[in-house]
Amino acid sequence: MDGAKDIQKTDNLTEFLDNQVVRTNPFGQNVSGERAYRRAERLTAALHLLTNHVPFQEPSRVEIRRVGVQLLSNLLDLRDEMRVSTSPAFRAVQASVRELISLVRVLSTSGYISLQNASIVVETLDELGNFLTVSQRSTLSESVTFSKDELLGTEGSDMSLMPVRKSASETDKSQVQGRRMGQIIKDRKSIKDISRTDDKGQHIEQALDRRGLAILDILRSQGVIGIKDIASNLPEYSEKMIQRELVRLVSLNRVKKIGFKRWSKYAFTQ
Length: 270
Fold this sequence. Notes:
Elements: H1 10-19, H2 31-50, H3 59-77, H4 88-109, H5 115-135, H6 148-152, H7 168-196, H8 202-207, H9 210-222, H10 227-233, H11 239-251, E1 255-258, E2 265-268
Antiparallel strand pairs: 1-2
């Protein structure tokens, strides 16, 4: 019963945050920033719940709430500078995360928060800080993205309608790719037959765990990306864990695999 006093029906928190879809997104193409902000929002709400019973005159209660709210503001300031480790905004976020970890430990030592809940919150805060560091290497942290067609000015032009003469080697390569594509299409048909028996996909959606839903969320917002880009947004999971989950999602026809071996990329399927 050690943690009974600071358990505040966390299901209500999850239900409130998950069932309300917020369409306002100040992060634009910065998928990593948007995900970091949502994590910080959950943590700030959890910190308020955990400190509800702490006396108002306790300095740590006031400070932990103030820093939690400030963390949200700091992340908004960081949305265009996530890839810059020397950015003042980036350092401010790191400082806020570290201060929150210390404040949670202080409240736990004082007996206001159970060791179990304190350990979970500290671990989650540390993962948020690590997530921001890992995201610096990801293309998903960019606020602006370009395509080659945009820079060359060939997007939407009539060049794609011009006939192209293929060499013999290119023709053979196209035939091999065509046979592979035919095999992929054939495999998809068998997967669709399986999914059709599962109550039109409803059972499949319910069977996905938090890791699978997180991967789908990234693919849904970013498009066709590789395992490393997915892993950079999910530092709590190893690449092998993500790879196993992608295999399962592909078998459920929720994700489409493009390419082979280390050149493979994945896309969300409707």
